[in-house]
UniProtKB/TrEMBL annotation:
Record's protein name: Succinate dehydrogenase
Source domain of life: Bacteria
Organism per entry: Tessaracoccus defluvii
NCBIfam families according to UniProt: sdhC_b558_fam
Residue spans crossing the bilayer: 49-73, 94-113, 146-169, 181-204
One Pfam family linked to the record: Sdh_cyt
Subcellular location: Membrane
One example GO MF annotation: metal ion binding
One CC-aspect GO term: membrane
Keywords: Heme, Iron, Membrane, Metal-binding, Transmembrane, Transmembrane helix
SUPFAM superfamilies the UniProt entry points to: Fumarate reductase respiratory complex transmembrane subunits
Annotated InterPro entries: Cytochrome_b-558, SQR/QFR_C/D, SuccDH_FuR_B_TM-su
């Protein structure tokens, strides 16, 4: 659970870095998108790095969701039919992870249909496979798409922040300073994702990015 979560947290951080290139304009953003398809060519075949990343992420996602379901089932059996009701911060934390996780999982499917595959009617009607910048702008010019994306960034940020607190224990990090450092990294990444990714659809709606 922790290792697969760490893999996806790393991907989110790298993906955020790439998304921020949209502030440098269409050429920079499309250049980054094109580079992903030809990274390390001719040393490696075209799109090999991209497909290796996709396979690793899919495996990590399956493991993460599978472990989450397994842990939930084990915890439910361990508490028994007359389990005590958990209250306070522990209750909120236990409720947040599956709820935010399901929301992010649903977003992944919609996001792929929208900006990677261009599947109608999820994607904008003007979708062009080779123009990532135009596709992103066209998608976020639709109010429902922009609102949905911002809402999911809130859920993802909460999931990241909470996930890093449990990751420290799951990986056996016992030192107080190391645990505090992991929690701080998770909080900073969550804030960066919320502000960085969340700003894009808002600025598209305001006409700043067009």
């Amino acid at each position: 659970m922790a290792v697969s979560g760490a893999l996806w947290a790393f991907f989110v951080a790298v993906h955020l870095f790439g998304n921020l290139k949209i502030f440098a304009g269409a050429e920079a953003f499309n250049g980054y998108s094109a580079w992903l398809r030809v990274a390390f060519y001719p040393l490696l075949p075209e799109e090999s790095v991209l497909w290796a990343l996709r396979v690793a992420l899919v495996v990590g996602l399956v493991v993460h969701v599978g472990c989450a379901a397994l842990l939930w089932a084990r915890a439910r059996r361990a508490r028994g039919p007359h389990r005590a009701r958990i209250r306070g911060a522990r209750s909120v934390g236990a409720w947040l992870m599956p709820v935010t996780g399901i929301g992010v999982l649903a977003f992944l499917v919609i996001h792929l249909l929208d900006l990677t595959l261009g599947t109608q009617p999820i994607a904008a009607s003007t979708y062009v496979h080779a123009d990532a910048y135009a596709n992103l702008v066209a998608s976020f010019q639709r109010p429902w798409s922009a609102t949905f994306y911002v809402a999911i960034m809130v859920l993802l940020s909460v999931h990241l922040a909470k996930g890093f607190t449990t990751m420290a224990a799951d990986l056996g990090v016992m030192g107080r300073r190391w645990r505090a450092a992991l929690v701080a990294v998770g909080g900073l990444l969550a804030l960066a994702v919320l502000l960085g990714n969340g700003a894009i659809p808002i600025l598209v709606q305001l006409g700043v990015i067009a």
